[in-house]
Write a structure and sequence with these properties.
Number of helices of chain A: 5
Strand content of chain A: under 5%
Low-confidence stretches of chain B: none
Mean pLDDT of chain A: 84
Low-confidence stretches of chain A: none
Structural class of chain B: mainly alpha
Number of domains of chain A: 1
Number of strands of chain A: 0
Structural class of chain A: mainly alpha
Number of strands of chain B: 3
Oligomer: heterodimer
Helix content of chain B: over 70%
Mean pLDDT of chain B: 89
Shape of chain B: globular
Order of helices and strands of chain A: HHHHH
Distance between the termini of chain B: 35 Å
Distance between the termini of chain A: 77 Å
Strand order of the largest sheet of chain B: 1-2-3
Chain lengths: 142, 536
């Protein structure tokens, strides 16, 4: 087996494992900080997949920049060997968006700690039920 | 079919964004509430004006309006395309936000951080406009995040309440999962199709052989497994279901929409829900319909119809069990989303017409219901219907408008809601789907109990009569409520005109992918005058 393809397979398997771990953390971990960390893992994994898709296999890849204007044949060389610049542009956009997302979630986490006294999101969502049960228990005692 | 390049189309999302970023600065410098409010209203009015111009060009002159950002030709750059569906929704959304801006001014009269709400509403509007008019699949992702990042702070606007914070955090994390998955699907689609433009994608899905053409517009062809097309379809449909909260993805909605301030609930429940429906229509009908993936699309339509039927029953039943007024309206939104998707997933012209008609009716009716209930909630500082007993006597005008909106949402003849529901019933009978037609009637009847329960509690005077001082509604709140009532009435009274416009719209949507792709192709030809030789 070609060593490049072998390494690529390992990369893809590890990326898929990353996605599974990140989804587990996002859904099942109650701690907001752990959710934010899982979200960064998830979005960065997606970005790495995008970069891999833009890569040109085969010959030695070139950066997608026309560096020799004096040589008109260079453009053909560039077309056959340069990597795809579009996924890189998409990844930059996605990174900026995810950064703003993480800043927003951090602010929400701070506010939640101030108001609620805990950063356990699942408890905050289930608190109403707990209160109702406690209230019923108190009335029963009286 | 004519094609027009118009700068007004580009301005639809530029105006609210530019005003949004300069608004906090203007507000801080002048330190005047009046200047900030006028600046906000001017922004919403200009957006409405620009949208009206595009609506007029598209619907009266029967053209497709395009605008290339930065002069980039279509497969490379972001191009805005306005066809009948998107302009119809853009017109409705910009007009409702302009009307609501008056109400937002009234609602935030005692708040210190009113500039935050103005700014976020303008960013939300910019996101709506970009989402509606863009023809680029990746730009949809960006606009989705713009809408989201404006929505989550608005849901958590009362940041001293942990319930609002928790609702906002849950919505944000859920949407983050879906949007990252959508980003992944977009990238994989690009790897296969070599383009992110919806016009090019539509042509490539219809005929792969056409893509081998040497024309650079279709260049690259399709290389790789066609499975990624299906993966993108699944992720796009899931995204649209999450935005519009169709049944299994609904659980964030009652918390988020009830914890937000009332005008924001109106915006989210009435308008943000429609973005998902628009995305569903665009992906299913413009890009994928009648292409290689007919079998997969049939499955999608069947699943959507099933989920929509469950959603209507579920929403109608849950409306009867809730004690929170805004949660009752939120469950009504879940039910109405089911109605809209029922019509949209039939695949016939009549079905799509009914779905679009019900979407317009629900948007206006829900905005009216939330603005009217917001008057009571703001005064009484509670959302429990037991605590709101007798409140209807304090504000007769708000009570009257609330009754009008509920009759509109239930669907009684002078209002528009009746005509959309009967059209939906007709389209279901036309297809021969009698079970779903029965579900439509059953859930309408069941939901009327939930609506009438609210009215009964608001009008019933409790025995130890609590005398509250009657507060006068300000003039512009009265104007907002009456204009919205007039709009619901007009949707019913001008039924023939609305029906004609909607039939044209849905006909163009179902059959008109060629117009959509040709608009982009003509723009490409216009922007690249010389033929480019592609090396083999």
């Amino acid at each position: 087996m070609n060593i490049t393809i072998f390494m690529l397979n390992i990369l893809m398997v590890s990326l898929i494992a990353n996605i599974v771990i990140a989804l587990y953390g996002l859904i099942f971990k109650p701690n907001m900080i752990k959710k934010i960390i899982s979200l960064t893992i998830f979005s960065d994994t997606a970005s790495i997949i995008a970069v891999v898709i833009g890569y040109r296999f085969g010959k030695l890849p070139l950066p997608p920049v026309y560096m020799e204007p004096s040589n008109p044949d260079y453009i053909y060389e560039l077309l056959s060997r340069s990597v795809d610049p579009l996924p890189q542009a998409l990844v930059i956009t996605a990174i900026v968006i995810n950064l703003s997302f993480i800043v927003f979630l951090s602010v929400i986490t701070l506010k939640l700690y101030d108001v609620f006294g805990s950063i356990n999101l699942h408890l905050a969502l289930r608190r109403e039920v707990i209160e109702r049960i406690e209230a019923e228990y108190e009335t029963f005692e009286e | 079919m004519n094609y027009t390049i118009s700068i007004h189309l580009g301005l639809t999302s530029i105006i609210p964004a530019a005003f949004a970023f300069s608004l906090p600065l203007i507000g801080r410098i002048t330190k005047s509430r009046l200047v900030g409010t006028i600046y906000f209203m001017v922004a919403t009015f200009l957006t409405f004006l620009v949208n009206t111009i595009v609506f007029y060009q598209v619907h009266i002159y029967d053209t497709i309006v395009v605008y290339p950002f930065g002069g980039w030709p279509p497969p490379l750059g972001v191009v805005y395309v306005a066809d009948k569906t998107s302009t119809l929704m853009g017109f409705t959304i910009s007009l409702s936000i302009f009307i609501l801006s008056l109400y937002i001014h009234w609602y935030t009269r005692h708040m210190d951080n009113y500039l935050l709400m103005y700014t976020l509403v303008l960013i939300l509007e910019a996101g709506f406009m970009g989402f509606l008019y863009t023809s680029d699949v990746f730009n949809i992702y960006v606009m989705l995040e713009v809408i989201g990042l404006a929505t989550y702070p608005l849901v958590a606007f009362y940041s001293y309440r942990w319930k609002a914070l928790a609702a906002s955090a849950r919505y944000a994390i859920l949407a983050a999962i879906i949007t990252v998955l959508y980003f992944l699907a977009t990238i994989l689609l690009y790897a296969v199709a070599g383009t992110l433009n919806m016009g090019c994608l539509a042509v490539k899905v219809r005929s792969i052989s056409l893509c081998q053409h040497s024309d650079p517009f279709f260049g690259g062809g399709v290389n790789g497994p066609l499975f990624y097309f299906v993966f993108y379809l699944a992720m796009a449909i899931w995204t649209s279901f999450l935005i519009s909260a169709l049944f299994p993805n609904h659980f964030w909605l009652p918390d988020a929409h009830s914890e937000a301030p009332s005008p924001i609930s109106a915006l989210l429940s009435g308008l943000a829900i429609n973005m998902g429906v628009y995305f569903f229509l665009r992906i299913v009908y413009t890009v994928y319909n009648d292409g290689l993936f007919t079998h997969e699309l049939g499955n999608v339509m069947f699943i959507t119809l099933t989920l929509a039927s469950i959603a209507t029953i579920y929403g109608a039943l849950m409306m009867g069990f809730e004690d929170d007024v805004k949660r009752i309206l939120a469950y009504s939104t879940i039910m109405n989303t089911g109605f809209i998707y029922m019509g949209v997933s039939l695949g016939t012209v009549l079905g799509v017409t009914a779905g679009l008609y019900h979407m317009l009716n629900h948007a206006i009716g829900k905005i009216l219901a939330f603005t009217a209930i917001g008057v009571f909630v703001r005064r009484y500082r509670t959302r429990n219907i037991e605590a709101l007993e007798g409140a209807g006597h304090l504000y007769p005008l708000a009570m009257f408008t609330l009754i009008a909106s509920f009759l509109h949402l239930i669907g009684l003849p002078p209002f528009g809601g009746f005509f959309s529901k009967i059209l939906l019933f007709q389209s279901l009978i036309e297809v021969g789907n009698y079970i779903v037609a029965c579900i439509l009637i059953v859930s309408t009847v069941a939901s009327s109990y939930g609506y009438l329960r609210v009215l009964e509690h608001l009008w019933h005077i409790p025995f130890p009569t609590v005398i509250l001082k009657r507060e006068k509604l300000s003039l512009h709140t009265k104007i907002v409520l009456l204009v919205l009532v007039a709009w619901t009435l007009l949707l019913g009274l001008l039924q023939q005109t609305v029906y004609t416009i909607l039939v044209d719209t849905s006909r163009q949507l179902i059959n008109g992918y060629k117009d959509y792709a040709m608009a982009l192709y003509m723009l490409y030809k216009y922007l690249t005058p010389t033929d480019i030789q592609v090396p083999e």
